[in-house]
Structure prediction request, 1045 residues.
Amino acid sequence: MNTLKNPKKTVLFFLFSFMIVLSACEEVIQIDLNNADPKIVIEGIVTDQPGPAIVTIRKTTDYYNPGTYPAVKNAQVTISDDLGYTEQLAETSDGVYQSVNLQGTPGRTYTLEVIAEGKTYSAISYMPLPTKIDSLFYTKNTGGIRPKDKEGYSLTLTFTDTPGIEDFKRLKIYQNGEALDGFTLYNGRLSDGNKIEYDHIRTTFELNDLITIELISIDENTYEYYSTLGNAVATSGGNKIQTKIPANPNSTITGDALGYFGALAVSSDSIRIK
Amino acid sequence: MNWKILSFLVLFLASAVLAEETVTLSGFVSDAETGEALIGTNIFVPEKQIGGSTNAYGFYSISIPSGKYVFRFSFIGYQAKDVPVNLTQNTKINVELSPESLNTETIIVTAEAADANIKVAEMGTVQINPVEMKQVPILFGEQDVLKTIQLLPGVTAASEGQAGFYVRGGGPDQNLILLDEAPVYNASHLMGFFSVFNSDAINSAKLIKGGGPPEYGGRLSSVLDIKMKEGNRKKFKMSGGIGVISSRLAIEGPIDGGKGSYFISGRRTYADLLMQSASSDLSDLTLYFYDVNMKANYQLGENDYLYLSGYLGRDVLGFNDEFGLNWGNATTTLRWNHLFSDKLFSNTSFIYSDFDYAVSFENGGSLTDITSGIEDYNLKQNFYYSYSPQHKFNSGFDLNYHTFIPGQISTSGETVLNELEIEKKYALESAVYLGHEWQANSWLSFNYGLRYSNFTLLGPGTVYTFDEDDNPDTSTKYSDGEVIKNYGGLEPRFTTNILIDRASSVKFSLSRNRQYIHLISNSNSGPSLDVWHPSTSLVEPGIADQISLGYFRNFLDNNIETSFEVYYKTLQNQVDYKNGADLLLNQFVESQLVFGDGRSYGAEFYLKKNYGQLTGWLSYTLSRTEREFAAINNGDAYPTTNDRTHDISLTGIYQFNDKWSFSANWVYNTGQAYTFPSGKYQIDGQTINYYTERNGYRLPDYHRLDLSTTYNFDSNGRYESNINFSVYNAYGQANPYSVYFRESEDDPNVTEAVKVYLFTFFPSISYNFNW
Prediction:
């Protein structure tokens, strides 16, 4: 049995624990922020799972505004694949465009084209073959840095890296149906063909929790997008300590839009802690 | 190595030896109680109004027409000594100076002695006094030379409590930190909260903020030249201390009846022991560092001195047997001083320096080790030729063979990571130089020189080029010893001093520095996973040009020194990373780099009170530092994280009586440049920050007061001891260490800013003794 102890993650975990020991304190403060011109944000996803491909087109909003993002309506959105299939997506609600027939197939390359407010945007994404989850299990914690760690359970997932190609994956974890924040990513550059074990240490799970995990295979551009996105996530548990200067994620969309278009091959599994 | 230039320098020196009839007084100056060399002692001959000072080994040489003179030797913190000499032939006199007792209220200061700061053609240079250094209040009560220099103008701290420092807008890898001439590649411990320099082991430290004499080179922004203690030549001594974070012990004493001496010191932290006792859950945690400094010297004959010094320090972090991380430096210096004549002093040093780190994982019997580092073998030769009080020459060469170990993974058993070795890289960095100190007349002096540096990247190795998507395009293999790439260039250095009157002068300086190695750092403050990278075909050497102008004035018989300097510095070929760069264990790391330029300019004001019950200094810096990269911030210039518009520090040390002393420092600076979002959007149901400019915002201004008091117990025979209390951030200012944004817990639709802060009112106590 092997363990993926992502070196970077483990080191950071220890260093942050040290910071906690050093009694870092927090306080909500008032910071005046500039307003930026709204910029178009395109989030497009096609998966190998049942259900429509969804493309959401909105704009950025001022930072302290409540979370309402101006929808970009009446855009012309099409997704096509490398075998010549093309489908125009219909706007099902303001700024949200969905397919009817399109179902992603691993191994194909998909192209998104958006014409919105007189400008054209496009993106390409390859859907890799999915990787199956070998096992998913939980263990009761025996110790930890924080007192509450001992009460909880931690989650372990194993899978096998595809030999001969560089794997890029995202792990998306749902606790009782709710997706956990953040982007847990895997890249097989240094572990080609090996059995991988992922210990989820950031969240402490509790008795009766229903946990679903999605092992999502993605292409390199989507991986790069997610990995640079991680530096810009504004949610709790994000980058409390700026260890590097944050920047906007590397958009995969041409035409000066924020966001990405990803073709995702998803494997999933669920477990309830009893 | 350019031997033609070297032989030219030697010829030049030889031809300079034709001139007037003079005799030479030379020798070493040392502390009367310990025999330690006193570096930078002033020597002055009032009758002739000429003088000089001791070099880095305590050696002086003054040439003067024969006659009767009084030579006055003086050094801050020591009683000045007048030595009358009837000089008819070349004479050697070793001089010992006695330390002043700290509470001496009436100290006679000779105006000639203490005014070196206005008389010497030297700018942007500060000598750090170890006695003062020990009295400055510091976080955790742990005295630290790197934290002391952060209180000087033009120097900023990396961040709260950090030992890392930035000089005049240069990056942390642009500081050449020398410990007994050996480069120290990573000067910090424990996430940067401590430096590797145990203050017990330091004899002197000198900071040069750019330029400097031509014997120094290889870094763009500064030189911090630290000399270790040599050990007491007169008697065995033991000293040590117990503090909240660490304990220290040092022993020293004479060798062979004073022909030599030795010094050994050690320090270890025990934060992990405290944490383990605090919670049983932490019993598997290992977290400590240690430093060992050793030095020995021996006088082989009248004209030959041999020194051997070494440093070993390591940080060890681990949890159970499952995970371990350790890193550290090791240096060794073997040095031979030889007096060819009363005027020609030679220093030959053979230096070894190593920095490496290792990460290890263990799981069910399978092991994974990741290692990386840099290793140097370095030969330095310096000739110091004191031709006359008006003309002094400095010349030599420097050969440094670097081995870069970017990273390798070794495994045993069935492991997650595969074995990998990224090709090592080899390079020879060399330099020749000549410097001339010239006292043209009573009011005009020059210190100028030329350094020629060269860098040769040697095989074996593979050179890659990359296509637009950063994928390797072509590769070229080079065999063992083959030249892959060669860089070289001149580094002129020039400083002039114009004395206006007995108490003031104007100085002007120009310099160029080249840097051939670059730090590929994974983060701003993280200590350990840094990798040094040589200049290659794709990564060009950095170049810094600096121009500075200063006005220096002393008051009250040199008790108060002031200076005002302005500088402008440009930086070329700076290295940064692409957004999302994958730097760890990446053989194609060069595809992840981007290149740009930088500039820094500012004004520095410094006031220092040297004598009396109250001593201390005030520093004020007004500055601006920017970088400009085509690939960053849309190509627009942006302030660096360590840009501080205003930076003030005030340090005072008050010697109340024999028993009590008090010290305080107060620092204030403009908040660091920071990148905040100017908008937001959603991806994957998560709120994402939208950034419009890099470092376009500021953290709130930073300020803090630290206090310290020391009580000396009655001495009991040889045994002397004191106890020190200090408080870091005495008024509990919650200075932001970082600011982040989150969805409000009450309403996820609302985003709020949260500051993270450390160390409000952090007390420390330590007990120190010597016997």
